[in-house]
Amino acid sequence: MKRLKILKYDCIRIVNIYISYIILILFIYGTLWTVFQAQMYPGKNLFSFFILFLACYFSGHLVNSIGLPPLLGMLIAGILLRNIAAINIAKDINLRWSIVIKSLSLVIILIHGGLKCDSAVLLRFKCLVTLLSCVPCIGEAIAIAIVTRYVLAFPWAWSFVMGFVMSPLSPAVIVPQLVKIQELGYGIDKGIPTLILAASSIDGTIAIMGFAIFAQLAQPTPEHKESLTFTVLHGPLEVLIGLLYGFGVGVLFWYIPSYELSEPFKSRFRYSLLASAGVFAVFGGKLATFSGAGAFGTLTLTLVANYGWFKRGNKYDNVVSRDFKFIWDFFQPLLFGLIGTQMDIYSIQLKFLGYCILLIVVGLIARASLAILSVTNIGFTWKEKLFVGITWTPKATVQAAIGSLALDTAILRQSPETTMNLARMVLIASIIVILVTAPLGAIAIDKAGPRLLTRSPTLPRQKMEEAIFDDSIPIKDLNRKTDFPIGPTNRQGITNQNFRDDIHAKSGKIFPADIPSEPDGDEHSGVKELVTKL
Question: Are residues 337 and 465 in the same domain?
Answer without folding.
Answer: no
